[in-house]
Request: fold
Amino acid sequence: MQEFRKRWLSLGVALASGISIGAVAADNNPAAVDPALTSSPVSSAAVAGEGGEGGEGEGVTPTNLKADDVAYLSRLGLIRGHLLVGYQLYSQGHAPMARMHMKHPRDELYAGLVPAITHRGGAAFDEQLSNLAEAVASGANQAEVDKAYLALEAAIKAAESVTNPSLKTALLSVKDLLRTAGEEYGLGVEDGKLVNAHEYQDAYGFTQIASRRLAELPAEMRAESPEAVDQAQTIVANLADLWPSLAPGDEVEGEASRLHGAAARIEITALGL
Reply:
């Protein structure tokens, strides 16, 4: 049902933006394109379907994950977001929900990214991804899951480190994460009601990774514009109340428009650098 809704939303975005229907169809059929080349839609989550969160970034030209640092960092951020929320759910005793989040990164996002990682001189993290998924699936003790998660986080950060992005690039990747979070939140929460916990949780994970990416900026990058970084961090911090908990009741008071607005403000900041 979510795939159906996302694809219709994708079509609406495509028509409104002047994108050909064929381009949308190609994005929903990963086998039709080079896995390291993803259609770069206006709405990344909207075109996900079973093929994943699509390519990050804006416009209608293909996004080459081998060359586009924003798209590459955004994809890694989405993977980190899925894993973070799965890890936290497991730690809080919600193992069935955690297993679903551990499954999605490989199915939706990782396979198409591997050629870009190796092209850039990085190391793929298949083993670490499998180790964490297997630990969660088998109901391993928390210490074992902690160890597997930390090893995977380190491997993903190593894959991120093969880029040498500017502050502008880093902020645009944060924008992509928040925009995708907004799309997911809109699918998870409608009119104050939680209608899809998985999408709501995805939005949390992506927003948390956006916050972490800002906190992890190296000093020399932060020095490019301390004011821009401080502003971005404040914008993201102000979103925290959208998630009263990871597994709330039926009612959630939150609007996806806040995430979209935050993404837009950070984009404006980035484009001003």
